[in-house]
Each structure stands twice: as C-alpha cells, then as structure tokens.
# Entry
Amino acid sequence: MKIKVDYDVCEANAVCMGLAPDVFEVDEDDNLHVLLPEPPRETLDRVRHAVRSCPKAALSLHDE
Ligand code: SF4
# Structure
C-alpha cells in the first residue's frame, strides 16, 4: 500500500499527524511530510483512520 497526498487541497491542519505521528509530519512551515510513504502493515489501521479523518480528503491509499 502506498500513501498519496493531494498537496493542492491539504491545509496542514495536522489531523493525520495526530492520529499517526510515525507516518505523517507537519513541519513548522506547514508542510506535510509523509515519513513512511509505503507504511508497514502494523501501521495500516492508524493510516486508514488518518486517511478517513482528513477533513480535506487529501489522503488516499493505493495498491502498488
Ligand atoms: S489531515 Fe489532511 S489536510 Fe490535515 S495535514 Fe493531514 S493531509 Fe493535510
């Protein structure tokens, strides 16, 4: 599974970071970084929760 981000709609509110801080990071300049673009299996529940919880629907998961 691979995380995709629509950076055009992400507003860097860090909801995803709050739910999966090992995978998503919003820096001091309000830039989102995906720390684990291909998240390991043990993180997937949290990643899916973060994807569903993004208020801008900027995140998606894809089979690669
Ligand atoms: S929750 Fe969505 S809008 Fe907020 S920082 Fe994460 S990807 Fe961007």
Q: What stands out?
A: Residues 29 and 61 are 25 Å apart (CA to CA). DSSP finds two helices and four strands in the chain. The first helix runs from residue 15 to 19.
